[in-house]
Amino acid sequence: MCGIVAYIGKEQAFPIILKGLKRLEYRGYDSAGIAVLNDDSSLNNYKRSGKVSELEEFAAQHDSTGTVGIGHTRWATHGLPNNINAHPHVSSDGEMALIHNGIIENYDSLREELMSRGYVFKSETDTEVLIHLIDDIKKNEQVKTAEAVRIALNSVIGAYAIVVLSKDNPNQLVAARKSSPLVVGIGKDGAFYLASDATPIIEYTNEVVYMEDEEIAVVDRNDGLRIFSIQDKEKVPYIQRLELKLEAIEKGGYEHFMLKEIHEQPRSIKDCFRGRLNVDEGWVKLGGIKDYESKLAKAKRIIMVACGTSWHAALVGEYLFEDLARIPVEVEYASEFRYRNPIIDEDDIVIAISQSGETADTLAALNLAKSKGATILGICNVVGSSISRITHAGSYTHAGPEIGVASTKAFTAQVTVLTLMALSIARKKGNLDDTKFRRIITELELIPDKVAKILEQSEKHEEISAVYKDARNALYLGRGNSFPVALEGALKLKEISYIHAEGYPAAEMKHGPIALIDEEMPVFVIATKGPSYEKVVSNIQEVKARKGKIIAVITEGDTQVKAIADHYIEIPDTDENLAPLLATIPLQLISYYVAVMRGANVDQPRNLAKSVTVE
Ligand code: F6R
């Protein structure tokens, strides 16, 4: 949460930072601010509550020139999203400015200490302690900014990615990270870019350094990039080449990123299994985990940790691993797992699933499991992310950047990786006969075309959305591996259209939620062909008997549900293990159209942020 961008070089900093903040707005959009040091050594700091565009309008009336600057887009944790709490925060003497992503946990005690030394706090943020602390150390210890940052961070508890700009050295920016991500881009002619992820950097350079925890980076127009640990040990920067393309982070003609990402799924699913699946030769392999396949095949249990949509993917994974590989799986909310004193030992395998690879709870759950000796594996989308770096091994989803806050293509890519993993372990264990294996992989290869076929029915999805756009509540029902799809459908609807929605196992409905059903209640039911089909048909009848409205996702050619549903969407037939990859698509589309019809901000829903780097 919160996005940070900084620039130092020969170009004007403000437009570069502004553009970068727009790219990072998915990380938070409660307020935005940019501080630029101009040629007369004036530090101009512009901050506005609301979106980056509001900051842009405001700053257009003022001097924003200068070739070094720092910027921030905020997802509020401590303090309201107003102008004062917006970053950058400036030292009392106006000599230094700082941006921060993360949470300073011991800010209360640091604040008291600093207040007793005469510092006056203007904001309600935890971040403000950092700037005063660095300032205090700089003055008392008579040290330079980088050293003051290092000393200060040794007494800070919490998560941070920070960048500090100081008037006394206009040629330098000092940055540091712990638990919150930070990337340094090495540009041409001595220019440097710092950002929470690579998207603000990609258009200028593809040479980057992903900073590690407890590292400090000093970027200097004259001395280049130097990296130190907070224990003051100099390190050799590890420069990596980005493969990200600029088109991948642009809307490409779509009205919203979410719609673009929904429509990218035929491609993203294909990219996910490219090189990992060969139907003609009859194999599946995931290079990233090959050294752990034997351990996985012998595992007595697997624990999957994740949050939100990724947790729903893990639930689908549970069905796949148990059905195909016959390994018991426990699916845990990372935030609960980490505080539960879980029983884990060296025989356990913990798989984290995370689009961003930065989710604080998932990261902490993994670290806990690692400290107890478990093997930790990751399924991440963002290359070079924290989770992908701390795990013993893992598989990327290769879905490409997901910018819409509501996760869509990342979910189907996660489910695809989990399918490949379950299949390869099942084969290794000898659990899956040739016929079934071949049937599933043949079907898997056809999934992208089948997704494309569902996407062609956008008019039908729009028509249904128009009917239910004013609903106040909605229920989503499914059984077996359609239950996580129901959960995911409900999450998509509530997060972008603000309609209250619940996902339930269809049979659970009669244990409570059935009381909610009346003629106003839309009930989305995943009623595709499979072992629970007849049971789901009975659940539909129960809803109909109470006058609820049924919107059913059915398999092409179905006549029974078609006859009783108020609305239906047909999806192509597939192997029952793969059905979630198709059944999810109509629910994504309907959520999208409903949100658009309600005038909601689809890509940046209120109160949310894409990368949840606070617990
Ligand atoms: C919902 C959504 C969130 C994320 C969750 C975990 O559409 O995007 O629920 O799935 O915050 O994020 P990652 O996968 O980045 O760990």
From TrEMBL:
Domain SIS: 292-431, 464-605
GO molecular function: carbohydrate derivative binding; glutamine-fructose-6-phosphate transaminase (isomerizing) activity
Entry keyword Translocase: no
Alphabetical keyword list: Aminotransferase, Cytoplasm, Glutamine amidotransferase, Repeat, Transferase
Gene: glmS
Reaction(s) catalysed (UniProt annotation): D-fructose 6-phosphate + L-glutamine = D-glucosamine 6-phosphate + L-glutamate
Function: Catalyzes the first step in hexosamine metabolism, converting fructose-6P into glucosamine-6P using glutamine as a nitrogen source.
GO biological process: amino sugar biosynthetic process; carbohydrate metabolic process; fructose 6-phosphate metabolic process; protein N-linked glycosylation; UDP-N-acetylglucosamine metabolic process
Subunit comment: Homodimer.
Record-linked InterPro entries: GATase_2_dom (IPR017932), GFAT (IPR005855), GFAT_N (IPR047084), GlmS/AgaS_SIS (IPR035466), GlmS/FrlB_SIS (IPR035490), Ntn_hydrolases_N (IPR029055), SIS_dom (IPR001347), SIS_dom_sf (IPR046348)
Annotated compartments: Cytoplasm
Name used for this protein in its record: Glutamine--fructose-6-phosphate aminotransferase [isomerizing]
Organism classification: Bacteria, Pseudomonadati, Bacteroidota, Flavobacteriia, Flavobacteriales
Active site: C2 (nucleophile), K610 (for fru-6p isomerization activity)
Domain of life: Bacteria
Keyword Nuclease: no
Primary enzyme class: transferase
One cellular-component annotation, GO: cytosol
Protein species of origin: Brumimicrobium oceani
EC number(s) stated in the UniProt entry for this protein: 2.6.1.16
Family annotation (SUPFAM superfamilies): N-terminal nucleophile aminohydrolases (Ntn hydrolases), SIS domain
Gene3D superfamilies (UniProt xref): Glucose-6-phosphate isomerase like protein, domain 1, Glutamine Phosphoribosylpyrophosphate, subunit 1, domain 1
Domain Glutamine amidotransferase type-2: 2-222
Pfam families the record matches: GATase_6, SIS
